[in-house]
Amino acid sequence: NAGVTQTPKFRVLKTGQSMTLLCAQDMNHEYMYWYRQDPGMGLRLIHYSVGEGTTAKGEVPDGYNVSRLKKQNFLLGLESAAPSQTSVYFCASSQTILDSPLHFGNGTRLTVT
Amino acid sequence: QQPVQSPQAVILREGEDAVINCSSSKALYSVHWYRQKHGEAPVFLMILLKGGEQKGHDKISASFNEKKQQSSLYLTASQLSYSGTYFCGTEGNSNSGYALNFGKGTSLLVTP
Predict the structure, then answer these.
(1) Which of A31, A59, A101 sits opposite B47 (nearest CB)?
(2) Helix, strand, coil % (nearest 5) of chain B?
(3) B1 to A59: CB separation less than 8 angstroms, yes or no
(4) What single-letter DSSP state applies at residue B23?
(5) A&B contacts, CB < 8 Å
(6) Are B47 and A56 inside 8 Å of each other by CB?
């Protein structure tokens, strides 16, 4: 089993460009999440999904959109990238929302210049 | 709504003990603990549930005080492999999303 796979691993964007980060999980988990990690700030929840076709906002949703068209995939989009979105992005999945472990992908390091 | 962790950083010698604390301003159903090594993804350690159930690592212990809305992670007889950043996670609210919200982390360095 691959677990949670994120693509790409690294990306450099110019301000104003758009991109989509892909997260795929093969554990048949209902719940999926996108977090961003910045030095000294911990992991902050961007958006999450409680099942196929659903999305919900987290702590820091502004500037991001998400879609969960298939149960195994959770996409994070940046429509017009800003330098403040330079970060490491982690996707995670879990069987239930609060009483089962989160399984994290290896992260995507995004730099916006 | 991020939980608050303390201390921010700890340096230990191998074999020493450490306690990492996590507190929340709201009533909790569960507290999660994860460890992250530099350049890697966070890895699950433990879940503590309201009512006393625990799931996870059998060599690391933790407590959950529901009334005080606090949890503590106990690292005893520390090993070099314990080095990393520890995060606690608790459920959010309508402003922060009801999934796990993580604290800012506690950096632990174990030296020989």
Answers:
(1) A101
(2) 5, 55, 45
(3) yes
(4) E
(5) 80
(6) no
A30 touches chain B (CB under 8 A): no
Give the separation between CA A15 and CA A1, rounded to whole angstroms.
37
Beta carbons of A58 and B34 less than 8 Å apart: no
**CA A55 from centroid of its chain's CA atoms:** 12
Q: Token pair 């977090």 is at which residue?
A: A35
Alpha helices per DSSP H over chain B: none
Q: Which pair of structure tokens corresponds to residue A105?
A: 């992908």
Q: What is the DSSP letter of B71?
A: E
> Do the beta carbons of residue A48 and residue A32 sit within 8 Å?
yes
Each residue's pLDDT, cut to its tens digit, for chain A (113 residues) gives 679 999 999 999 999 999 999 999 999 999 999 999 999 889 999 999 999 999 999 999 999 999 999 999 999 999 999 999 999 999 999 999 888 999 999 999 999 99
To the nearest whole Å, the CA of B30 is away from the closest chain A CA by: 7
Task: Answer for the pair A26, A36: CB distance below 8 angstroms, yes or no.
Answer: no
